[in-house]
Amino acid sequence: MASNNLSYIGLAHRAGKTLAGSAACEKGIRRGKVRLLLVGESMSDGSKRSFARLCERCGVEMIETPQPIGKAIGRADVMVIGITDQGFATTIVKNVKRDRGSGKA
User: In angstroms, rounded to a whole number, what is the distance separating the alpha carbons of residues 30 and 76?
Assistant: First the structure.
């Protein structure tokens, strides 16, 4: 994930369009508020699998990122962020796909 995506995550957070942390994201996914789930690479495999199953069940796209995503919102300890705005989610997904296609991910 390129640094401009971290900027979009930070912007979404400042706009109040994110949920940070496992409990908040799980609750948001179950309630249908999360449009995109970003998971840090350093999260445990069990937690990733659990979120992947939940996202699949609820129709939410999940992206695993190699960068510390909590840094984008000023909370380095956060390993999972839910984007609640469709516009931000679409932009981030589009940028991730473009970066992966060009080998920048």
Answer: 25
Q: Is the dihedral of CA 64, 68, 72, 73 positive or negative?
A: positive
Q: Which residues of 65-85 are buried (b: 16+ CB within 10 A; e: fewer)?
A: bebebbebbeeeebbbbbbbb
Q: Could you report the per-residue pLDDT of 6-54, keeping only the tens digit for each?
A: 889 999 999 999 999 999 999 999 999 999 999 998 899 999 999 999 9
Domain interval for residue 15: 3-99
**Residue 103 DSSP class:** T
User: For residue 28, is it within any domain?
Assistant: yes
**What angle do helix axes 22-30 and 45-58 make, rounded to 10 degrees?**
20
104 within some domain: no
CATH number, domain with residue 35: 3.30.1330.30
Verdict on whether the full-model pTM lies above 0.70: yes
Number of domains in the chain: 1
